[in-house]
Amino acid sequence: MITKKMKTILTVAALAFAGQLFAGEATTKSPNVIVIFTDDMGYADAGCYGAQDINTPNLDRMAAEGVRFTDFYSANAVCSPSRAAMLTGRYPTRCKVPGVLFPRDSHGFPPTEVTIAEILKNAGYATACIGKWHLGHKPEFLPTRQGFDYYWGIPYSNDMWIDKTAPLASDLKLNGGATVEKIRSGAYSKKGGGLKSPHEKFKLPLMLNEEVIEFPVNQTTLTQRYTDETIKFIKTNVNKNKPFFVYLPHAMPHIPLAVTNPFRGKSKQGFYGDTIEELDANVGRLLRALKELNIDDNTLVMFTSDNGPWLGLGELSGSAKPLKGGKFSTHDGGQRVPMIIRWPGKVAAGRVCTQVTSMLDLFPTIATLAGQPLTNDRVIDGQNIWPLLALEEGEVPEKDFFYLYGWDVQAVRSGKWKLQEALGGGSWGLKRKAGQKALYDLESDPGEKTNLADKYPEVFKRLEGLIAEKQKEIGTGIKPGGRKEKGKKK
Fold first, then answer.
1. Is the pLDDT of residue 405 over 80?
2. pLDDT exceeds 50 at position 208
């Protein structure tokens, strides 16, 4: 039986040749693609973005050898929605992933969505997700059901727990006195006592494809092991002369923070800085492996974060300076994130791109470079930004960017202007209030300090209309699992 999703992918295959026309002179051979995705890393947490007390020589070198973006946005201010958007090029509400998923949830990323992994797999790529998935832990929502040949990592955030019904491998490795009986009884199926608990209390499963192979995983080794596994996957497919796509979503620097001993106490910015410096060192390991394998000049590497830093945690917090706010907020500190793209000989070296771009643009850009046209059976919110990267820079139309939190469109950026209607949602942010709307000029006021609504009423009214129009178009009012959104009819 051919499902609707299969028909969509088959349509892409039939149109693959036509897609080559869009790639232009970008490449004559399908590039390998690596997307490195950190968790809760702040806008100002790398040297090339202004960090003073965190040493990031490999990220700085990536920026010197590629394009660094100043106005690149995550599609959401929290984990799960931003990942759904990156993989599909669609606002997360369209993907029915408006908020964070937990081990207690039975819903997840809809199998009907088409991911960039599926597009690339159809184009002959080997595909792997190595790291934190966080789009549903039930078998039908895992990476292996969304175009990834291989999955190795934790299924959700590292401050969560194990679902007592999780499928366990026959050769499951148990650590620290854990037992299958305790897993099945639900003894580990709760949070480790709150944010102040030591990291040992957060007991996470490590999965291979669709089974738990280790419990609990030692979080201090995750950054290193993810990189080890990525290099191993790359080597295997280089030997097969097969192009590859690796999605590498790290667990760090989401709390609880963890590093290996060589990096503990290394940074001038405390424990948080240690985690960033270890991430940076592993970026360096990956780049060195590409050179050693002689595939550096045909591998596109992207580095970004799922959202802004988790503030208010003392030395465990990153920085979004000079931006306002952080994770859980639709101020720019919650969604404007680092983005560096490197591809020697194809991407301009040392360029700084100031155009507004977003995570939504990765899907259409990567698909186009692989010679795959976009599907026409669904809305793709992103656009191909290759002209901004190419050696001879071209133009890409500026698109309005909408800030979503939960089911709400809470702000819009149009050119230099931003209209803010709310700051977050639910227990994590501020609810919409009368008189709360503010208009900012982000070019002169990136910290969103001065409300210009009274000075530019025509701009305010235009952007207010954009938000209302997008909310009407994108908001369904129905939450996953059939739960009704408060105040809206099912």
1. yes
2. yes
**Domain chopping of the chain, boundaries:** 4-389, 401-482
Question: Could you tell me which residue, 239 or 192, shows the higher pLDDT?
Answer: 239
- Check 95, 129, 134, 254 and give the catalytic one: 134
Nearest to 323 by CA among 388, 406, 389, 420: 420
Termini Cα distance of the chain = 31
- Across the range 304-329, mean pLDDT stands at 94
134 is catalytic: yes
Average pLDDT, the chain: 88
pLDDT, greater one: 397 or 430: 397
Q: What's domain 401-482's architecture?
A: 2-Layer Sandwich (3.30)
Q: Dihedral of the CA atoms 420, 426, 432, 437 (nearest 10)?
A: -20
Q: Is 4-389 CATH 3.40.50.2000?
A: no
Q: In this prediction, what percent of the chain has a pLDDT beyond 70? A: 86
- Using pLDDT thresholds of 50, 70 and 90, give the confidence band for residue 377: confident
Round to whole Å and give the CA distance between 188 and 63: 42
Residue 12 banded pLDDT, cuts 50, 70, 90: very low
| 331 noted as active-site residue | no
Q: What is the pLDDT of residues 299-308, one digit of tens each?
A: 999 999 999 9
CA angle 57, 63, 66 (to 5 degrees): 140
Query: Which sign does the torsion angle of CA 43, 46, 48, 51 carry?
Result: positive
What is the structure's pLDDT at 374? Answer: 83
- If one counts every other C-beta atom within 10 angstroms of the C-beta of residue 138, the result is 17
